[in-house]
Design brief:
Helix content is about 35%, strand content about 20%. The protein is α+β, with helices and mostly antiparallel strands. The protein has one domain: Ribonuclease Rh, Chain A (Alpha-Beta Complex). Strands 1, 2, 4, 5, 6 and 7 form a 6-stranded mixed sheet that branches. A hairpin with a 6-residue loop joins strand 5 and strand 6. Helix 6 runs parallel beside helix 8 and helix 8 crosses helix 9. The longest helix is centred in the middle third of the chain and has 25 residues. It starts with a helix and ends in a 5-residue tail after the last strand.
């Protein structure tokens, strides 16, 4: 009987390290407006590769870049660090194991991968999704491209000036109606030393998605009201958002 117990232990051993997907209710896709992010603190322009590489041509090609895809809970007690890796410098986290095509796609939509943001997003959020690294980032990249197709052009067209959130929502309704009520817009005032730029700018566009009950991957767009958000406008004065322009 002893050998049967040893055999059972050997069979169960590989499963011991497999974490169950965290309990969560929906996904939140956070997309950055890079010029506003890089304007926030002077050191970012020197410290981060994504800010050093920022250009007008690059911004026009991908106005909204991937910040992260976050498993969220309705009670706001969002899961994090489900794989056990926590804190520290991003580039000290374990490198990701991604197929070449996924890595190339991620490089297009997430310039901050040059600063190892992809490792951090996987450690903090992706590890809670129940998806593999490749599945998680393939979905993240595809959704980022989808939102850019819908409103990226309207955002890029307003570089260096304001755009109304109503017009952005109208662009969504024309290009991808399912996204319209799933999107919220976040404006923040950068902590720049330049007084001429201390006013609210569009910093992030956030999109809610259902969690597919079968695959666990992001499913259909989820209206922000069903995710507990009260309004599509977060901090944009009078429903208008300034689109900061990159400096070549």
């Amino acid at each position: 009987m002893r050998w049967k117990g040893m055999l059972l232990a050997l069979l169960l051993a590989p499963l011991a390290g497999c974490a169950e997907p965290a309990r969560f209710d929906y996904y939140l896709l956070a997309l950055s407006v890079a010029p506003a992010f890089c304007e926030d603190e002077p050191q970012r322009k020197q410290k981060f590769a994504q800010c050093q590489a920022l250009s007008e041509a690059g911004f026009k090609a991908m106005p909204l870049t991937l910040h992260g895809l976050w498993p969220n809970r309705a009670d706001r007690k969002h899961p994090s660090y489900c794989g056990g890796e926590t804190g520290g410098a991003f580039c000290r986290l374990p490198p990701l194991r991604l197929p070449p095509d996924t890595r190339a796609q991620l490089g297009r939509v997430m310039p901050a991968a040059a600063d190892c943001l992809d490792r951090y997003q996987w450690a903090k959020h992706g590890s809670c999704s129940g998806l593999s690294e490749a599945e998680y980032f393939t979905a993240s990249a595809a959704l980022t491209e989808r939102v850019n197709r819908a409103i990226g052009g309207e955002i890029a067209r307003h570089m260096g000036r304001e755009v109304s959130l109503v017009s952005l929502r109208e662009a969504l309704a024309r290009a991808d109606p399912a996204l319209k009520d799933a999107v919220t817009f976040d404006c923040q005032t950068p902590r720049t030393p330049d007084p001429a730029k201390r006013f609210p700018m569009l910093r992030e566009v956030r999109i809610h998605f259902e969690r597919d009950p079968v695959t666990g991957a992001p499913g259909h767009p989820l209206p922000y009201a069903r995710a507990g958000s009260r309004h599509y406008n977060s901090g944009c004065p009078q429903g208008r958002a300034y689109i900061d322009a990159p400096l070549d």
